C-alpha cells in the first residue's frame, strides 16, 4: 500500500537531505579532496566555482527534463517531436566569480531556461550590486575595477551603464505617481551639479521637494533639474505637483529661491511661505569673521526665539545697533528675509521646531552631494537624474522605505496646525 507524503513532509525531507549534503563531515571531505587534488577553494578554478557550476548544470538538466516531459533516454520521449540536442559552453558571472557551465539544448530550440536565461551573462545579484554601488556614488570606472578585483567579473562601463538604465522607466513612474491631496508642510531646496550641455560643462541645480503628510511622514515628491531659478521654472514644478493630485499646502518652507514664493502663492493661494531660519543664520554668518561668530549667533538667537513679531523687531534693532556698523551685510540678510521670516513667529514652540528649518531636506541633500561629488560632471541631465533617483531610493530604504520617515513631535504640531488652519486638513 502506497503512503501519500504531504507537502510539509516533502519539505522536511528535502531540508534533511540538504542538511546532510552540507554537514560538516561532507564539507570536510570536499575540502580534503580539493587539497589533495591541488584545487584552491576560491578563484576561477576553485572548489566554490566548481560546486556552483555543478549545481547550475544539474538545475538546467532538471529544467530541460521538465520542459520535455521525460527523463534522458526514457522510452516515452520517442515520437514526441523534440529531444535533447547536446550542450553549449558559456561563461556566466556570479558572486563567486566567472563560472563556465554546459547549457543543455533541445532540438526544437524551444527550451527557455530560468536559472540561467538565454543570452544571460550574469546571474545572482550582480545587477543589484552594480545598482547599489552606483547609488552610493561610485563611478562606472570604480565599479568596473571593484567587480574585477573582488569578484573576477569583467563588467565594461557600457554594461554598467546599461544595467543602471533599467531604472529609467522606474524614474518616469516615480515622477508621475499620484500624490496626497494635502501636505501640511512642503520643503524645497536644491543642490548644485555640473552637467555637460551642448558640449560645455555648466552648473545646474537639482531641486528636491519633500512633503510631510498628515501622519507626519516625509516623502520625496519629486526632483527637477533646472539651469536657473525663475518664475517659469517654478510654475512648471508646482503645476506638476498640482496635476499629480496636490490640492493644498499649509506651510511652504524654502530658502530665498528666486520666483518660488510667488509661484507657490499662485498655485496654492492660502499657503504660508516660510523662509528657513537656519539658512538666514548661515547667510548672515558669511559676513562675520570667525572670532565674532559666537557673539553674533547669540545675538541672532534673540531674534528668532522672540515670542512675538514686535519683540523680534526690537531684537533686530538691537542687533543692528550693536553689529550693523561692523557687519552691515549680516543685518541686510535679516532685513531682506524679514517678510517671509515673520510668519514663523506666529507659531507656538511645538510647531516652530518642525518648520523652522529645512534640515529635513538638507540631510537628504547632504547625502546626495556625497554621491555626486565623485563625478566631475554628468554627460547629460538624464545621467544626473538617474544617479539622484538611485541615491534617493537608497536613502529612502535606509530611512523608512516607501512609508517615508517620521517627524519628531508631530502629534503636538498636528493639533496646532488644526487650530491655525481650521477645515484644511483631511480627516
TrEMBL record:
Q: What is this protein called?
A: Mutator family transposase
Question: For the region Disordered, what residue ranges are annotated?
Answer: 71-92
Q: Which InterPro entries match?
A: Transposase_mutator
- Which species expresses this protein natively? Amycolatopsis minnesotensis
Composition bias type Polar residues, residue spans: 81-92
Q: Name one Pfam family in it.
A: Transposase_mut
Keyword check for Transcription regulation: no
The family classification in the record reads: Belongs to the transposase mutator family.
Sections of the chain in a coiled coil: none
Instruction: Enumerate the UniProt keywords alphabetically.
Output: DNA recombination, DNA-binding, Transposable element, Transposition
Record carries keyword Transcription regulation? no
Amino acid at each position: 500500500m502506497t503512503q501519500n507524503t504531504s507537502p510539509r513532509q516533502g519539505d522536511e525531507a528535502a531540508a534533511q537531505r540538504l542538511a546532510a549534503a552540507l554537514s560538516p563531515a561532507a564539507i570536510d571531505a570536499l575540502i580534503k579532496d580539493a587539497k589533495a587534488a591541488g584545487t584552491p577553494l576560491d578563484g576561477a578554478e576553485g572548489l566554490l566555482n566548481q560546486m556552483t557550476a555543478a549545481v547550475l548544470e544539474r538545475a538546467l538538466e532538471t529544467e530541460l527534463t521538465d520542459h520535455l516531459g521525460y527523463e534522458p533516454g526514457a522510452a516515452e520521449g520517442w515520437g514526441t517531436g523534440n529531444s535533447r540536442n547536446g550542450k553549449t559552453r558559456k561563461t556566466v558571472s556570479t558572486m563567486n566569480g566567472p563560472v563556465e557551465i554546459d547549457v543543455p539544448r533541445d532540438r526544437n530550440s524551444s527550451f527557455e531556461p530560468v536559472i540561467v536565461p538565454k543570452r544571460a551573462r550574469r546571474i545572482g545579484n550582480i545587477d543589484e550590486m552594480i545598482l547599489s554601488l552606483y547609488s552610493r556614488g561610485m563611478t562606472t570606472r570604480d565599479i568596473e575595477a571593484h567587480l574585477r578585483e573582488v569578484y573576477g567579473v569583467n563588467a565594461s562601463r557600457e554594461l554598467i551603464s546599461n544595467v543602471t538604465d533599467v531604472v529609467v522607466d522606474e524614474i518616469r513612474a516615480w515622477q508621475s505617481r499620484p500624490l496626497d491631496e494635502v501636505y501640511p508642510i512642503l520643503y524645497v531646496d536644491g543642490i548644485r551639479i555640473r552637467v555637460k550641455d551642448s558640449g560645455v560643462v555648466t552648473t545646474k541645480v537639482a531641486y528636491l521637494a519633500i512633503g510631510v503628510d498628515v501622519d507626519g511622514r516625509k516623502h520625496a515628491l519629486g526632483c527637477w533639474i533646472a539651469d536657473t531659478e525663475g518664475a517659469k521654472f517654478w510654475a512648471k514644478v508646482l503645476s506638476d505637483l498640482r496635476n499629480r493630485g496636490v490640492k493644498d499646502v499649509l506651510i511652504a518652507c524654502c530658502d530665498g529661491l528666486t520666483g518660488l514664493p510667488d509661484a507657490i502663492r499662485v498655485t496654492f493661494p492660502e499657503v504660508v511661505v516660510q523662509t528657513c531660519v537656519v539658512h538666514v543664520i548661515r547667510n548672515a554668518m558669511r559676513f562675520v569673521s570667525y572670532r565674532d561668530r559666537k557673539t553674533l549667533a547669540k545675538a541672532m538667537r534673540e531674534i528668532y526665539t522672540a515670542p512675538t513679531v514686535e519683540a523680534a523687531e526690537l531684537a533686530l534693532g538691537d542687533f543692528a545697533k550693536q553689529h550693523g556698523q561692523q557687519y552691515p551685510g549680516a543685518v541686510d540678510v535679516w532685513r531682506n528675509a524679514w517678510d517671509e521670516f515673520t510668519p514663523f513667529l506666529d507659531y507656538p514652540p511645538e510647531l516652530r521646531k518642525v518648520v523652522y528649518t529645512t534640515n529635513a531636506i538638507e540631510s537628504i541633500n547632504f547625502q546626495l552631494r556625497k554621491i555626486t561629488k565623485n563625478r566631475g560632471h554628468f554627460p547629460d541631465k538624464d545621467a544626473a537624474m538617474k544617479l539622484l533617483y538611485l541615491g534617493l531610493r537608497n536613502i529612502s530604504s535606509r530611512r523608512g522605505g516607501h512609508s517615508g520617515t517620521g517627524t519628531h513631535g508631530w502629534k503636538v504640531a498636528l493639533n496646532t496646525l488644526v487650530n491655525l488652519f481650521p477645515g484644511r486638513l483631511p480627516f
